[in-house]
């Protein structure tokens, strides 16, 4: 009977292995076909949202489909999906593919560990802890600092606000918010700040938007005035959120002068570096976050400037006590072994969470800190190429400034959204538009470190040719919009 059980177990294991190998072969074949097609057509065919369900077979039914039908539906879906890794994608604050980081992400999927306890994740806990420790070292913090991974920059901003709230009033975690707390952020900051104020009980109406200068940087004097008025009106200021790389112009808010204001009023200082906080790794550009060692918390997205697959968001706190105080909760069914230092659920907003650290570790391990610096520096070099092209052509108007990887411009007086929409719908380029003050413009981001200078030049060549061939239509569309 035991022999029969062992034999059946062996057969089952063999069947599972065969199925997995078959699936991996499908994956390999599909990826190879995709990469080959991307080399010929870097922008996927446009599928209007109104025609999506008639164009692709996305239906789910009572019975499964055949392997042939399954693979056909999957391939059609993959081939119609926006191609964010090609040299024609400049639309969002991420892009490209780094093979070492992809390897780490694929291994995380195969291993399928959850990162809340050492018992569930084992050595992968060490991977996350080493990454966080090295980040804290680069900032200049001592062993009291620590951090965690979260699913995106909005969530790391939320965690910073919760820590600020709890640091201002340690009773809030038990009794709820009872005072009129206020938080302060630039008008150019990320849209998650008011959402997070609502989630945390502070309230959207208690977010104060501080004016910025002509380059999109927060004005410290204006911040000080607003705080003083709030105090006089009976509010309790608890936090300032600064931005390292605003979403439109890529501006860096001043840290040192705002730290002085926060110290005067006992306020938490967070730097949201989701977009460009990775300048931390660059000796050449780290001055853009001068004073980062003075903040209470700092976050950045390694899936942006550093090119790891989505998502890979890190938040670190100068004092790990705040992580534990705001996010720890006992659970005897979960935390059954090892010290809290190796049970990362005690300092995370989530319980079960995927292993986002491994893909960043495989990248960092393979290229070293100097290699990460080269990735960052290369993006600024690409931005210089783009700015030079705009400045040297009278048909362009430049709206952004040096030391930013957001290049904002208009071309031949044609509205930015008209050009961007037409390029997208005609499967030429993926690039977005933004606004600052009264101006709306095309926003080209050079965040794909796999691109070369020739790719930036090609972007302008494609756009200029497209406008030349369609100028009459574009101008007509702009008059009707």
Description of the molecule:
With about 475 residues, this protein is of the alpha/beta class. It has a domain at about 115-365: Aspartate Aminotransferase, domain 2 (3-Layer(aba) Sandwich). About 45% of the residues lie in helices and about 15% in strands. It is built from 15 helices and twelve strands. The protein has helices at about 1-40, 50-55, 65-80, 100-110, 120, 125-140, 155-170, 170-175, 190-200, 220-230, 255-265, 320-325, 355-390, 415-425, 455-480, and strands at about 90, 145-150, 180-185, 205-210, 235-245, 270-275, 295-300, 315, 395-400, 405-410, 430-435, 440-445. The protein has a seven-stranded mixed β-sheet, with helices on both faces. It has a five-stranded mixed β-sheet with strand order 1-11-12-10-9. β5, α11 (about 255-265) and β6 (about 270-275) form a beta-alpha-beta unit. The longest helix has about 40 residues, at about 1-40. It is globular, with a radius of gyration of 25 Å.
């Amino acid at each position: 009977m035991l022999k029969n059980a062992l034999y059946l177990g062996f057969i089952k294991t063999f069947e599972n292995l065969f199925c997995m190998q078959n699936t991996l072969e499908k994956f390999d074949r599909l990826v190879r076909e995709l990469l080959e097609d991307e080399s010929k057509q870097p922008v996927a065919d446009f599928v209007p949202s109104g025609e999506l369900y008639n164009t692709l077979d996305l239906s789910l039914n009572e019975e499964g489909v055949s392997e042939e039908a399954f693979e056909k539906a999957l391939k059609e879906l993959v081939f119609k999906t926006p191609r964010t890794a090609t040299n024609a994608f400049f639309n969002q604050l991420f892009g490209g593919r780094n093979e070492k980081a992809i390897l780490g992400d694929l291994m995380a999927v195969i291993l399928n560990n959850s990162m809340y306890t050492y018992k569930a994740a084992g050595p992968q806990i060490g991977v996350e802890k080493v990454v966080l420790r090295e980040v804290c070292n680069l900032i200049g913090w001592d062993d009291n600092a620590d951090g965690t991974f979260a699913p995106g920059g909005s969530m790391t901003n939320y965690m910073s606000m919760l820590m600020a709230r709890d640091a201002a009033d340690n009773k809030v975690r038990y009794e709820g918010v009872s005072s009129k707390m206020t938080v302060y952020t630039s008008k150019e900051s990320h849209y998650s700040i008011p959402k997070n104020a609502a989630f945390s009980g502070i309230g959207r109406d208690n977010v104060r938007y501080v004016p910025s200068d002509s380059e999109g940087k927060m004005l410290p004097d204006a911040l000080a005035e607003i705080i003083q008025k709030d105090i006089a009106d009976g509010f309790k200021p608890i936090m300032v959120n600064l931005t390292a790389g605003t979403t439109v112009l890529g501006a860096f808010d001043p840290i040192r002068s705002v730290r002085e204001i926060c110290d005067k009023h006992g306020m938490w200082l967070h730097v949201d570096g989701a977009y460009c906080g990775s300048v931390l790794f660059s000796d050449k550009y780290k001055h853009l976050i001068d004073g980062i060692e003075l903040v209470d918390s700092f976050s950045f997205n390694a899936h942006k400037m550093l090119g790891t697959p989505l998502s890979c968001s890190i938040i670190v706190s100068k004092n790990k006590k705040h992580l534990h105080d705001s996010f720890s909760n006992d659970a005897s069914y979960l935390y059954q072994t090892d010290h809290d230092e190796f049970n990362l659920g005690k300092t995370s907003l989530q319980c079960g969470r995927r292993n986002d650290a491994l893909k960043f570790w495989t990248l960092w391990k393979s290229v070293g800190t100097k290699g990460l610096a080269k990735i960052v520096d290369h993006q600024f070099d690409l931005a210089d190429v783009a700015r030079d092209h705009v400045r040297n052509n009278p048909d362009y108007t430049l709206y952004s400034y040096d030391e930013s990887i957001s290049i904002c411009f208009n071309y031949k007086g044609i509205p930015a959204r008209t050009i961007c929409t037409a390029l997208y719908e005609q499967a030429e380029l993926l690039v977005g538009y933004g606004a600052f003050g009264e101006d709306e413009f095309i926003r080209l981001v050079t965040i794909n470190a796999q691109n070369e200078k020739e790719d930036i030049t090609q972007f302008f060549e494609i756009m200029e040719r497209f406008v030349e061939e369609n100028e009459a239509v574009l101008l007509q569309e702009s008059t009707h919009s």
